[in-house]
Amino acid sequence: MLDDDQLAARNAELRGTLDNLMRELKQRTDGLRDAQAAIAAMTGVASSPDGNVVVTVDSTGVLDKLELGPRAFERVTPEQLAQTITQVARRAAGNVRDQVNAQMAPLTSEEGMVDLPDIVPGAPSLKDIFKVEQRDEPPPPPPPSDEDFGSSVLRREARPVQRAASSEPDDDDFGGSSIMGRGNNW
């Protein structure tokens, strides 16, 4: 059993630890508030190698601005342009995610941090409050193919459309008569 002096010393030690914990919690909370304000103003920007696609995202990775250069449609198919936009948007989102992680790094450091379970066994950890969740991004799709870069998609020769042979009249033909003159005989 502890005597009064030992109990007072233990009480003073516990009080000092709790004071340190509260001071650390206040510092981290203030830091978190400041970090949230800075993060809200962050943007991520990325561009395609040729500079024809520039994507800006907000701090959450949501598209804020898409810029297509005057030559963005030359020598690429719509599918290739879509892939390029997707890749650039992912890089912009990765850029802003790196900025957010750098901003949060001092707050997520566990070095020297006193935690509740250190004082009260079984108590929830304060360290979990300040952790930044990391998401694994899927690997980017392969780069666009160069097979159609020989000419502009806007100036390509029209390819004839092959229609399947049918005994039905062509949809565009309407059986040789106008639908406007049929009256109620639809």
Description:
- It is rod-shaped, with a radius of gyration of 32 Å.
- The chain is mainly α and 186 residues long.
- Helix content is 39%, strand content 9%.
- α1 packs antiparallel against α2 (78-108).
- It has helices at 4-40, 78-108, 116-119; strands spanning 43-47, 53-58, 63-68.
- A 3-stranded antiparallel β-sheet has the order 1-2-3, covered by helices on one side.
- A hairpin with a 5-residue loop joins β1 and β2 (53-58).
- The chain contains 3 helices and 3 strands, in the order αβββαα.
Average pLDDT taken over every residue: 77
Strand content: 5-15%
Strand order of the largest sheet: 1-2-3
- Could you name the ranges where pLDDT drops below 50 across 5 or more consecutive residues? none
Give a count of the beta strands, DSSP E runs of length 2 or more.
3
Q: How does the overall form come out from the CA principal axes?
A: rod-shaped
Topology pattern, helix = H, strand = E: HEEEHH
Largest sheet: 3 strands, antiparallel
Radius of gyration using CA atoms only: 32 Å
**What's the helix count?**
3
Q: What fraction, in percent, of the residue positions are helical?
A: 25-40%
Distance between the termini: 102 Å
Q: What is the structural class? A: mainly alpha
